[in-house]
Amino acid sequence: MFVPVIFSDAAAKKVTNKAAWSTAIAFTTNIAFFPFLALRAAPEPPGAPKPAPGGTQAAPGWGAATGAICLALCGLSAAWAVAGRPEMAGGLAERAAYLQEEFGSNRVFWAFFLDCGLFWAWQAVLLAGAEAKYRFVPVAGLAAWLIAGNGAQGRQQAAKQ
Protein backbone atom coordinates (compact mmCIF):
# COMPACT_ATOMS: atom_id res chain seq x y z
CA MET A 1 0.00 0.00 0.00
CA PHE A 2 2.97 2.33 0.27
CA VAL A 3 3.49 2.38 -3.51
CA PRO A 4 0.87 5.10 -4.20
CA VAL A 5 2.26 7.06 -1.25
CA ILE A 6 5.79 6.78 -2.64
CA PHE A 7 4.64 8.25 -5.94
CA SER A 8 2.89 11.15 -4.18
CA ASP A 9 5.40 11.97 -1.46
CA ALA A 10 6.81 15.46 -1.98
CA ALA A 11 10.01 14.69 -0.07
CA ALA A 12 10.69 11.72 -2.37
CA LYS A 13 10.67 13.82 -5.55
CA LYS A 14 14.47 13.71 -5.56
CA VAL A 15 14.50 9.88 -5.68
CA THR A 16 14.75 8.74 -9.29
CA ASN A 17 13.22 5.62 -10.86
CA LYS A 18 10.35 5.16 -8.40
CA ALA A 19 8.93 2.30 -10.50
CA ALA A 20 12.08 0.23 -9.88
CA TRP A 21 12.09 1.14 -6.19
CA SER A 22 8.38 0.23 -5.89
CA THR A 23 8.98 -3.14 -7.54
CA ALA A 24 11.92 -3.88 -5.25
CA ILE A 25 9.91 -2.82 -2.20
CA ALA A 26 6.99 -5.04 -3.23
CA PHE A 27 9.18 -8.14 -3.35
CA THR A 28 11.76 -7.48 -0.63
CA THR A 29 9.84 -5.17 1.76
CA ASN A 30 12.23 -3.58 4.22
CA ILE A 31 15.41 -4.63 2.39
CA ALA A 32 14.55 -2.02 -0.27
CA PHE A 33 12.12 0.18 1.67
CA PHE A 34 14.60 1.43 4.25
CA PRO A 35 17.24 2.48 1.67
CA PHE A 36 14.47 4.29 -0.22
CA LEU A 37 13.51 6.13 2.97
CA ALA A 38 17.16 7.06 3.51
CA LEU A 39 17.36 8.54 0.01
CA ARG A 40 14.09 10.36 0.67
CA ALA A 41 15.53 11.85 3.88
CA ALA A 42 18.77 12.98 2.25
CA PRO A 43 19.22 16.76 2.11
CA GLU A 44 18.03 18.56 -0.97
CA PRO A 45 20.74 19.45 -3.49
CA PRO A 46 21.74 23.12 -3.37
CA GLY A 47 19.37 25.30 -5.38
CA ALA A 48 16.63 22.65 -5.58
CA PRO A 49 13.06 23.76 -4.84
CA LYS A 50 11.79 22.82 -1.40
CA PRO A 51 9.11 20.10 -1.18
CA ALA A 52 5.51 21.19 -0.66
CA PRO A 53 4.37 21.39 2.96
CA GLY A 54 2.49 18.45 4.49
CA GLY A 55 -1.11 17.97 3.46
CA THR A 56 -0.63 18.66 -0.23
CA GLN A 57 0.19 15.15 -1.34
CA ALA A 58 -2.31 13.30 -3.49
CA ALA A 59 -1.88 9.67 -4.45
CA PRO A 60 -2.25 8.59 -8.08
CA GLY A 61 -5.74 7.74 -9.34
CA TRP A 62 -5.09 4.03 -8.89
CA GLY A 63 -4.37 4.56 -5.18
CA ALA A 64 -8.02 4.02 -4.18
CA ALA A 65 -8.11 0.62 -5.91
CA THR A 66 -4.82 -0.33 -4.27
CA GLY A 67 -6.19 0.59 -0.84
CA ALA A 68 -9.43 -1.33 -1.39
CA ILE A 69 -7.66 -4.46 -2.64
CA CYS A 70 -5.14 -4.41 0.22
CA LEU A 71 -7.86 -3.83 2.81
CA ALA A 72 -9.83 -6.78 1.41
CA LEU A 73 -6.71 -8.98 1.55
CA CYS A 74 -6.04 -7.91 5.16
CA GLY A 75 -9.63 -8.78 6.09
CA LEU A 76 -9.37 -12.15 4.37
CA SER A 77 -6.08 -12.86 6.15
CA ALA A 78 -7.55 -11.94 9.54
CA ALA A 79 -10.61 -14.13 8.92
CA TRP A 80 -8.39 -17.01 7.83
CA ALA A 81 -6.20 -16.62 10.94
CA VAL A 82 -9.28 -16.88 13.15
CA ALA A 83 -11.34 -19.52 11.33
CA GLY A 84 -9.47 -21.03 8.35
CA ARG A 85 -8.90 -24.80 8.14
CA PRO A 86 -10.14 -25.76 11.62
CA GLU A 87 -9.37 -29.43 10.90
CA MET A 88 -5.67 -28.54 10.71
CA ALA A 89 -5.25 -25.56 13.01
CA GLY A 90 -7.93 -26.32 15.56
CA GLY A 91 -10.35 -23.91 17.14
CA LEU A 92 -9.80 -20.48 18.61
CA ALA A 93 -8.28 -21.86 21.82
CA GLU A 94 -5.66 -23.87 19.92
CA ARG A 95 -4.82 -20.89 17.76
CA ALA A 96 -4.41 -18.65 20.82
CA ALA A 97 -2.11 -21.23 22.42
CA TYR A 98 -0.04 -21.41 19.23
CA LEU A 99 0.21 -17.61 19.13
CA GLN A 100 1.35 -17.52 22.76
CA GLU A 101 3.93 -20.24 22.08
CA GLU A 102 5.29 -18.36 19.06
CA PHE A 103 5.57 -15.14 21.06
CA GLY A 104 7.66 -16.98 23.61
CA SER A 105 10.02 -18.88 21.36
CA ASN A 106 10.22 -17.75 17.74
CA ARG A 107 12.57 -14.89 16.84
CA VAL A 108 11.31 -14.71 13.24
CA PHE A 109 7.82 -14.18 14.64
CA TRP A 110 9.13 -11.27 16.73
CA ALA A 111 10.94 -9.84 13.70
CA PHE A 112 7.63 -9.83 11.81
CA PHE A 113 5.98 -7.83 14.60
CA LEU A 114 8.92 -5.46 14.72
CA ASP A 115 8.57 -4.88 10.97
CA CYS A 116 4.87 -4.19 11.45
CA GLY A 117 5.71 -1.57 14.06
CA LEU A 118 8.32 0.06 11.83
CA PHE A 119 5.91 0.23 8.89
CA TRP A 120 3.30 1.77 11.20
CA ALA A 121 5.79 4.43 12.28
CA TRP A 122 6.67 5.18 8.65
CA GLN A 123 2.98 5.39 7.82
CA ALA A 124 2.73 8.25 10.30
CA VAL A 125 5.76 9.95 8.73
CA LEU A 126 4.75 9.51 5.10
CA LEU A 127 1.18 10.67 5.73
CA ALA A 128 2.36 13.74 7.64
CA GLY A 129 -0.38 15.97 6.23
CA ALA A 130 -3.22 13.51 6.74
CA GLU A 131 -5.69 13.44 9.60
CA ALA A 132 -4.72 11.43 12.71
CA LYS A 133 -7.30 8.73 11.96
CA TYR A 134 -5.32 7.90 8.80
CA ARG A 135 -1.80 8.42 10.13
CA PHE A 136 -1.97 6.54 13.40
CA VAL A 137 -4.22 3.54 12.65
CA PRO A 138 -1.92 0.86 11.24
CA VAL A 139 -2.77 -0.62 7.83
CA ALA A 140 -6.48 0.21 7.93
CA GLY A 141 -5.71 3.93 8.27
CA LEU A 142 -3.45 3.86 5.23
CA ALA A 143 -6.05 1.91 3.24
CA ALA A 144 -8.79 4.32 4.33
CA TRP A 145 -6.64 7.32 3.33
CA LEU A 146 -6.17 5.84 -0.13
CA ILE A 147 -9.86 4.93 -0.50
CA ALA A 148 -11.26 8.18 0.95
CA GLY A 149 -9.97 10.47 -1.73
CA ASN A 150 -6.24 10.02 -1.12
CA GLY A 151 -5.47 13.58 -0.29
CA ALA A 152 -8.26 15.36 -2.18
CA GLN A 153 -8.04 18.30 0.23
CA GLY A 154 -4.32 18.48 -0.46
CA ARG A 155 -4.94 18.65 -4.22
CA GLN A 156 -7.37 21.52 -3.68
CA GLN A 157 -4.81 23.39 -1.53
CA ALA A 158 -2.07 22.80 -4.08
CA ALA A 159 -4.29 24.02 -6.92
CA LYS A 160 -4.98 27.29 -5.07
CA GLN A 161 -1.25 28.00 -4.63
Compute the number of structural domains. Answer: 1
Largest sheet: none
The tally of beta strands, per DSSP, is 0
Through-space gap between termini: 28 Å
Kindly state the percentage of residues in helix.
55-70%
Q: What percent of residues are in strands?
A: under 5%
Rg for CA atoms: 18 Å
In short:
Keywords: Membrane, Transmembrane, Transmembrane helix. The chain crosses the membrane at residues 20-42, 62-83, 108-128, 134-152. 68% of the residues lie in helices and 0% in strands.
Would you kindly provide a written description of the structure presented here, covering whatever features stand out?
With 161 residues, this protein is an all-alpha fold. It has one domain (2-160). It has 10 helices and no strands. α1 packs antiparallel against α2 and α2 (18-28) runs antiparallel to α3. It starts with a helix and ends with a helix. Mean pLDDT is 84; it is low at 157-161. Keywords: Membrane, Transmembrane, Transmembrane helix. The chain crosses the membrane at residues 20-42, 62-83, 108-128, 134-152.
Task: Break the fold down into its secondary structure elements and pairings.
Blueprint: H1 2-8, H2 18-28, H3 30-41, H4 63-83, H5 86-89, H6 92-105, H7 107-126, H8 132-135, H9 140-147, H10 152-160
Salient structural properties:
161 residues; mainly alpha; 10 helices; 0% strand; elongated; disordered C terminus
